[in-house]
């Protein structure tokens, strides 16, 4: 079994997700206490995909995150660098145009997508700033980015409890449901090391995105960041 390190070598991260692909959606549901379904709904509202729009869903995994955009009538491209995840997704939703790709070197032309979104995946990219610049490159002028990522709870007492859950409770729970529980030790460590809400907003601005704002979900356990590409 593979566990990636916090320097996030792409082959290590991809291999780790290959290992957990079969039970990935179930494990997320258990570990988030069902909150991941609510978070996905909030992402869909923030992206606000319309019929005939083109949406790039990065770190799409098995494609679960892509389905709300497809149901809206948009043309959605699920993209991930884990071939194991893509294989599971293709088996479940064969009609979606699954695409293998690294977020830091996207296999798309400039100014293609009306919206680019990534949920719980930016944290796993080796070069966050390069990925944000690539997302900006492939988004058409006037288009938008929506990022859903674990963040920093805003209430200090809850933040302490949450950190304890991540490091002590999450790995044992993962052992009961995941095919690679060590991957969820990496998950806990990577969440603790991730920038807070203003920190990620600054990185979005540095990559060229404008009108950057964020909204906390579940008390800041997760944050939705949004930005626009100037026309």
TrEMBL record:
Residue numbers binding S-adenosyl-L-methionine: 62, 80, 102-103, 119
Keywords for this protein: Menaquinone biosynthesis, Methyltransferase, S-adenosyl-L-methionine, Transferase
Any GO molecular function: demethylmenaquinone methyltransferase activity
GO annotation, biological process: menaquinone biosynthetic process; methylation
Gene3D superfamilies xrefs: Vaccinia Virus protein VP39
Catalytic activity entry: a 2-demethylmenaquinol + S-adenosyl-L-methionine = a menaquinol + S-adenosyl-L-homocysteine + H(+)
PROSITE patterns, alphabetized: SAM_MT_UBIE (PS51608), UBIE_1 (PS01183), UBIE_2 (PS01184)
Enzyme Commission number(s) from the entry: 2.1.1.163
One Pfam family in the UniProt entry: Ubie_methyltran
Pathway membership, UniProt: Quinol/quinone metabolism; menaquinone biosynthesis; menaquinol from 1,4-dihydroxy-2-naphthoate: step 2/2
Origin: domain of life: Bacteria
Protein family per UniProt: Belongs to the class I-like SAM-binding methyltransferase superfamily. MenG/UbiE family.
Function: Methyltransferase required for the conversion of demethylmenaquinol (DMKH2) to menaquinol (MKH2).
PANTHER family for this protein: 2-METHOXY-6-POLYPRENYL-1,4-BENZOQUINOL METHYLASE, MITOCHONDRIAL, METHYLTRANSFERASE
Annotated HAMAP family: MenG_UbiE_methyltr (MF_01813)
UniProt name for this protein: Demethylmenaquinone methyltransferase
Organism, as annotated: Streptomyces pilosus
Classification of source organism: Bacteria, Bacillati, Actinomycetota, Actinomycetes, Kitasatosporales
Gene this protein is translated from: menG
């Amino acid at each position: 079994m593979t566990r990636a390190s916090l320097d996030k070598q792409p082959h290590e991260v991809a291999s780790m997700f290959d290992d957990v692909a079969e039970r990935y959606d179930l494990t997320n549901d258990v570990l988030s206490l069902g909150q991941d379904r609510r978070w996905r709904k909030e992402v869909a509202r923030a992206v606000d995909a319309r019929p005939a729009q083109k949406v790039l869903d990065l770190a799409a995994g098995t494609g679960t995150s892509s389905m709300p955009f497809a149901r809206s009538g948009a043309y959605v491209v699920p993209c991930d660098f884990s071939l194991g995840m893509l294989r599971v997704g293709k088996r479940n939703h064969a009609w979606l145009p699954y695409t293998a790709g690294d977020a830091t070197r996207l296999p798309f032309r400039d100014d293609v997508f009306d919206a680019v979104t990534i949920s719980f995946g930016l944290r796993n990219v080796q070069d966050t700033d390069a990925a944000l610049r690539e997302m900006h490159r492939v988004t058409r002028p006037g288009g938008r980015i929506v990022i859903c990522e674990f963040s920093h709870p805003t209430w200090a007492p809850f933040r302490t409890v949450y950190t304890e859950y991540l490091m002590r409770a999450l790995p044992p729970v993962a052992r009961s449901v995941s095919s690679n529980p060590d991957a969820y030790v990496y998950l806990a460590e990577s969440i603790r090391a991730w920038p807070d809400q203003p920190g990620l907003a600054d990185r979005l601005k540095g990559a060229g995105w404008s009108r950057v704002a964020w909204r906390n979900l579940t008390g800041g356990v997760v944050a939705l960041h949004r930005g626009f590409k100037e026309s």
